[in-house]
Design brief:
Blueprint: H1 2-6, H2 11-19, E1 25-28, E2 38-47, E3 52-59, E4 68-70, E5 74-88, E6 93-98, E7 103-106, E8 111-128, E9 133-138, E10 144-149, H3 150-155
Antiparallel strand pairs: 1-2, 2-3, 3-8, 4-8, 4-9, 5-6, 5-7, 5-8, 9-10
């Protein structure tokens, strides 16, 4: 768990990104989503002993990933572009804009939208899996549509 707590991202992940040596899974939305979904993820490491997965995500300009909830804690670092987070609770909606160099950690259970700015964005994540589960994909009414697992990320089943 120390790796997640300190947010130490692997240097190998950054060098693989710079060299183009990553296996990207491209995800898009469908007719049941009323917002543009266009992003890609590439797993850079998995530590099954601690349940931590590291991956890089890239958003197309002004595009979202699926509305979701992180099941475990998550550390992030923005590498390129503006990364937008929109958190909605019963009492407030909070829009955060994170720029390159931002580094932070969020607790488990945060329900939010993420999207890339006008030039897209690239972010590296360290996510804590809980019983192998990473994210709940959620409809705007709060219904859980699917749960993304470490196995989904590693096997390429996200495509």
């Amino acid at each position: 768990m120390n790796e997640l707590e300190t947010g130490q991202f692997s240097e190998d992940a950054i060098s693989r990104l710079q060299s183009g040596r990553l296996d990207w899974q491209h995800l898009t939305g469908g007719p049941r989503f009323d917002y543009p979904i266009d992003y890609s993820v590439a797993v850079t490491s998995v530590d099954s002993a601690t349940g931590v997965i590291e991956f890089i995500a890239k958003w197309a300009p002004n595009s979202y990933c699926h509305y979701h909830r992180h099941i475990g804690r998550t550390a992030t670092r923005v590498l390129q572009g503006e990364h937008h987070i929109v958190e909605t609770t019963a009492l407030q909606t909070l829009h955060k804009t994170r720029r390159p160099g931002f580094h932070g950690q969020t607790p488990a259970g945060e329900l939010h939208m993420e999207y890339g700015g006008a030039d897209g964005t690239t972010v590296i994540f360290l996510c804590e899996a809980v019983d192998g589960n990473l994210f709940d994909i959620v409809a705007k009414d709060g219904t859980v549509l699917a749960t993304a697992t470490v196995d989904d990320f590693v096997s390429g089943r996200l495509r």
